[in-house]
Design brief:
37% helix; binds L-tyrosinamide; 4 helices; single chain; alpha+beta
């Protein structure tokens, strides 16, 4: 469901500014968007603003090491990050050759859960594989 916020107010003030409250309320909403005006018979204006806050996104990265088997990394990428076999192989080889590679970009709690799943699985299998997240 789309959340709607309404801001009532006069359309001008003593300093000649229009809808100052509305502009303030928009601060931090970088996406902007389609904002509508509804004029009432009373002469007041209602601004309707869909809530379009984006979640904080985090990049999940795999780090290379010399000991974790390539096949284990490929399986982790398939299981935890839902990659196809081909895509998992591509990412694993990128990490193997470049030292670090991206598994995906997710909202904080999703990223955290994926990092935990990778680290738990690596520990359980006694591999030194490292998985980290960084703010996008
Ligand atoms: N470098 C490892 C090897 O040669 C393979 C590997 C790839 C390990 C990616 C970790 O994130 C990793 N067995």
């Amino acid at each position: 469901m789309t959340k709607i916020s309404r801001m009532h107010g006069a359309t001008g003030d003593s300093e000649g500014r229009r809808d100052a409250g509305f502009r303030l309320a928009r601060d931090g909403n970088q996406r902007g968007g389609a904002d509508g005006d509804t004029r009432h018979e009373s002469g007041t204006t209602t601004k309707v603003r869909p809530q379009t806050k984006r979640p904080n996104l985090y990049r999940v990265l795999l780090l290379n090491d010399d000991y974790t088997p390539m096949e284990f990394v490929v399986l982790v990428l398939q299981d935890v990050f839902n990659k196809s076999r081909d895509e998992a192989m591509k990412i694993m080889l990128h990490v193997h050759n470049q030292g670090v590679g991206e598994c995906g970009i997710f909202p904080f709690e999703v990223a955290e859960t994926k990092v935990t799943r990778v680290m738990d699985s690596a520990r359980k299998n006694q591999h030194p594989l490292q998985c980290v997240m960084e703010k996008e």
